[in-house]
Amino acid sequence: MLTTEQLAELKEKLLMEKKSVEAELNKIAEKRGGEDVRAKFELMDERDEEANADEVEEYTSDLAVSETLEKKLEEINLALEKIKTGTYGKCENCKNEEIPLERLRAYPAATTCIKCQK
φ and ψ at 90, to 5 degrees? Predict the structure, then answer.
């Protein structure tokens, strides 16, 4: 079972990681003119196919990064919620096994023990 100090340490790591992920998501949104990354393409110039291709490529890249960051943010928020409810550090798969502290320190949003991960 995790001690109060260990929980505080892991919570701090999660909060720092959350802040970092949110900052990255905001950068992508700023790059797209402050809109959600999933927003529509900017108006495309019918005469400049290369610029249109660049716009589509950039949008696709931003979308992939955004989806990865959003998934990570969701995992972080879930871990923070589990800390609040007292269920943090328990394997979601086998329900009995505690996730080792070393694993949580390496990846604080881990939801499974090492045995179930394999």
Answer: -105, 140
The amino acid that residue 101 corresponds to is L
Those residues with Cβ within 8 angstroms of residue 66's Cβ, 6 or more apart along the chain or in another chain:
25, 28, 37, 38
Q: Which of 58-62, 97-101, 112-116 has the weakest average pLDDT?
A: 58-62
Which residues, 6 or more positions from 62, have their beta carbon under 8 angstroms from its beta carbon?
A: 28, 31, 32, 37
Burial track 89-118 (b if 16+ CB lie within 10 A, e otherwise): bbbeeeeeeebeeebbeeebbbbbbeeeee
Mind giving me the DSSP string for 76-97? HHHHHHHHHHT-TTB-TTTSSS
Q: What is the mean pLDDT of residues 21-28?
A: 90
Q: What is the mean pLDDT of the chain?
A: 82
| Cα separations in angstroms, 39 against 16, 62, 64 | 28, 11, 13
Is 0.85 surpassed by the pTM of this model?
A: no
Q: What is the mean pLDDT of residues 49-56?
A: 60
